[in-house]
Input
Amino acid sequence: MNLSIEHLRIEKASEHDTGLILSFIKELAEYERLSHAVVATEDLLREALFGERPVAEVLIGYYKDAPVGFALFFHNISTFLGRRGIYLEDLYVKPEARGKGVGRAMLIYLARLAKERNCGRLEWAVLDWNEPAIKFYKNLGAEALDEWTTFRVTGDALERLASK
Amino acid sequence: MNLSIEHLRIEKASEHDTGLILSFIKELAEYERLSHAVVATEDLLREALFGERPVAEVLIGYYKDAPVGFALFFHNISTFLGRRGIYLEDLYVKPEARGKGVGRAMLIYLARLAKERNCGRLEWAVLDWNEPAIKFYKNLGAEALDEWTTFRVTGDALERLASK
Output
């Protein structure tokens, strides 16, 4: 499935886009003030996205044929619905290409893909201080799951839990 | 991988556990005050968990050989780490079997599995009013990602977004 609206085009990424995807991930981390957290390499990403058992899929957004953003997603499951969902891990559009509908087009693409694959939900997480994003998502019909908090065990804490 | 501690045993579920898993899901929904949201059927679950392309895996917790709880999980990805993670969608222990270490044993199992599969993180979401759970998770080394909120598009809103 491809999606084109005037100067916009949304396409599935392929292996030769790995370097581009990594550069977008680094720009996204910078915007989220989390640059220190990026340790991914092109090899790790290639294996995760285009290896034997891909764990996620990627869309590239083009504006006037130049790549300006990406969306990285995978399937989760709702046990209450008994059906798969789509979880959008990363959505990023370069600052100079914002306001042209690229992010919106990627979300529309994912909503169509969710229907095509019989998924019950499209979900993603947003940083609480990112007010422009929150307003944008609510305008597209998304509801905030305010009563849930995500917990994480990682690094040394994960080692310690595994060795209990 | 199996994990046994005294009267406890944690095992991977198989297809013949589908009915049991559904009954646990319904009990969990009741505890979360979300019973109205459960529309999953045994057929839908069997397809999602044990069909051609399983989207999640399940552990069953046994106490003195009786099944008393379950954990349902799938792989997500951290683009910053460039590695897979484990996302725990559901964790449930029957009320009469709580306080015996079943939930703890399932989390330890998952932390070991995360290491075995070279995953960087173990994550899950908790309802904000579930204080006993939050205390329990923090004691096991989990950190709350307080600055993130999950957004969801589902039902009619998903239809509307797909048809934009």
In short: The first strand of chain A starts at residue 3 and ends at 5.
